[in-house]
Amino acid sequence: MANEQFIGSEEGKSASSAVQVDYRRVLYRAITHWYIVIFSLTAGITVAFLVNRYSTRIYPVSSSIIIRESQENADRYLFDNPLINQYRNYFNELYIIESYPIIQGVIEDLNFHVQIQKEGNFKTSEQYNNLPLSVKVLTPALEIRPSNLVIEIKDSLTYGCTPMTGENLTESIYRFGDTTECNGNKIILKKTGDLRNMLGDRFVVSVNRPEDVATGYIGALNLNWAQVGSSVINLSIETPIRKKGIDFLNRVILNYQEYDLEKKIQTSTRSIAFIENQLTDIRDSLSHYEKELQSFKRQNILTDLSTEATKLYESLKQLDAQRMALAVSANYYDYLEGYIQSPSLDKVVLPSSIGVVDPVLNELIAELMETQSAISMVGGKDDTKNPLIVNEKNRLRESKKRILESISILRKTDAIKISSIDKQIHEVEKELGEIPVAERLLTNIKRKYAFSEGMYTFLTQKLAEAGISRASTTSDIVIVNPPRVSGGAITPKPLQNYVVFGGTGLLLPLIAFLLLEIFNNKIQSKEDIEKHSSIPFIGGIGHKVEMSNLVVLNKPKSAITESFRALRSNLNFFLVNKDKGVILITSSISGEGKTFTTINLAAVFALAGRKTIIIGADLRRPKIFSDFNLSNTVGLSTYLSGQSSIPEIIQKTGTDNLHLISGGPAPPNPSELILGGHMDKLIEELRKQYDYIFLDTPPMALIADGLVLSKYADHTIYIVRQDYTPVEMLHNADDLYTSGKMAKMSMILNDIRKSGLGYGYGYGYGYGYNYGYGYGYGVYGKRKSKGEGYYQE
């Protein structure tokens, strides 16, 4: 059980070379460096407060409208009037609402392309309709030069204007209400209230092109159907100024209603213009035939027709009515062909409005009107790069082509009808030739008069219908929910910002501690030693805070002294002869505490009554003598070179049972001296005189002397220093152990400054906690100044 407790298990070495993170150490760093965590968390919460305090608040503004069916909007008298029962493609309505003509009109109507901003201590805020000032730009929209102007109120009559960019940045003084030119734009700045409290105030006036501002609002405007199959549209926009968002949606709806109403009125207006043009010609003909009939009746006694003549007259009257309808259709076809061949995108007169009833032609005209609306919504620009415009213009050309083909077919059909009617008229006229001349002449005059009168009556009726339609036309767009602010500010979100920034402030130090752990390639604990090597673990030594290496001799009751006593006990498990032995102490690199461990481990054996001697086997950097204030004029180097005898090189340390052989003057050939035969004789003689011999050797990763001297050792203690020795060095030591070159080896973890989560809880006696000896976890993890706490080797 003792072996298991102090030596540890050789099965603890990990065969994996992958990065393994001990999260307990990360937590330990966070706990011990709590002030960093608190500072970072406080910084995150402070940033969240500043964001919540100074970020521009964004509010949602929403509204909804309904597009009524035509039947819902029609008077019962005009229920089936083709002038108001127009084709409407509901899928196009969302695109129409957010089209440039409508949105740009809104921007210009509300003067949104001009902003007045007031500079604050931390941010600049827009002043929307809350200042006794108004700015109007007189420059045409396409000629406006985007610019920023600094306006300063001088007095109640004048103000100063300074361009923020450009060549001339000097201030100019103007009077309120005067038309001025500032930075290339003609503007009028008017006062709408008392300015006495604003004298000396400075404002920034931003002037932009309406089209550019419209682009931003088109992107910000959200449109969607309330639900599938309904004709209710929801409109919403997110804006920092609630009143501005409400005004924008109100104007969008108003402009959309005006567009819808204008589209309806245009159809009626063009129908009226076409009918009036036809009536002008027929009115002249009707007047002519009316005068001719009156003249005939004055010159002839005959005032009425016989029964036979009346019958023939009625037949001719019906045939003429049919021919009249075909003549009206022919006139419409002429109009339609002229319209199709022109590049105009004006609304076409519906065929139904003048009595031309053909379902195919009506469908083609409706398709033409839909395509025209789509093109007009993008301004009718000749943009060959826009695939939408190109596609719509291709559709328009195809529709015109099919309409012309339909007109050609209808003309041919009407020609056949006219030919048939003309034949019937010819037959009736032959029969009319058999009646008296006077009756025949009267019949012809009345026939022409009736034809013109019928045509006039028909067109007059259509004109009245068109006029009534135009006068009674209302928009199909009705507001369901007027624009309003729907809830509080959506940004910033105070709680979310506190969580995000506070969480970030908390995570950043944890991530930093995690990265430190990932990239730390130093040995930290007993677990690390067992993970990376199979060398038995014999114990640990705490961190020393004083300069002297003579801790055991100077402070026999300290926690470090107790840890060395524990090491002395553990060492008995590795020595065959419990009462004697040669112990070699080495490490990988300089600074790991070999000399410190050698002196104090030898001291605890000497204090226990064992005759002990320390050999300073580091011939290159001999300095162990300085810890005992002894001389280095003679030592191991002078003995191995034959200059001194064994008694001459042994020095008393001032402590009973503890002697020292220093390294002596540094020789030019230390390795050759150690390999000579004198070293064998020295060890042999010292074994006879002393119970324990401690060899303080150079670092093995740098010099091979330790490996050469290991043949004299009954046991080798390999020193590893916490948070100092690289893991790679431990692999080198393990290779020596597993290969049998230094089979009698154990390992000590020195300078334990960290104990707790992930670092173990004591590898000997007393260290890791403060037992009243003034030793524990160092001095809060900080190294002393002037080298205090360092190992000098």
In short:
With 793 residues, this protein is an alpha/beta fold. A hairpin with a 6-residue loop joins strand 11 (222-225) and strand 12 (232-239).
Structure description:
The chain has 793 residues and is α/β, with parallel strands linked by helices. 47% of the residues lie in helices and 15% in strands. The protein has 24 helices and 21 strands. The strands form four sheets. The chain has an eight-stranded mixed beta sheet with strand order 14-21-20-15-19-16-18-17, sandwiched between helices. A six-stranded antiparallel beta sheet has the order 3-2-10-5-6-7, with no helix packed on it. A hairpin with a 4-residue loop joins strand 5 (147-153) and strand 6 (158-163). The longest helix is centred in the middle third of the chain and has 58 residues, at 242-299. The chain is elongated and about 180 Å long. The two termini are 36 Å apart. The relative contact order is 0.11. The model is unreliable at 1-17, 71-85 and 761-790 (pLDDT under 50).
List the SSEs and their pairings.
Elements lengths: L1 H5 L16 H10 L1 H21 L4 E9 L2 H4 L19 H5 L2 H11 L3 E6 L4 E3 L6 E5 L9 E7 L4 E6 L8 E4 L3 E4 L2 E7 L10 E6 L2 H11 L1 E4 L6 E8 L2 H58 L7 H35 L17 H18 L10 H46 L4 H36 L4 E9 L8 H26 L6 H7 L4 E6 L8 H4 L4 H13 L9 E7 L6 H14 L4 E5 L7 H4 L8 H5 L5 H4 L1 E2 L5 E4 L8 H6 L2 H12 L2 E5 L8 H5 L5 E7 L5 H12 L6 E8 L41
Parallel strand pairs: 14-21, 15-19, 15-20, 16-18, 16-19, 20-21
Antiparallel strand pairs: 1-12, 1-13, 2-3, 2-10, 4-9, 5-6, 5-10, 6-7, 8-9, 11-12, 17-18
Helix pairs in contact: 2-3, 2-13, 3-13, 6-7, 6-8, 8-12, 9-11, 9-12, 10-11, 16-17
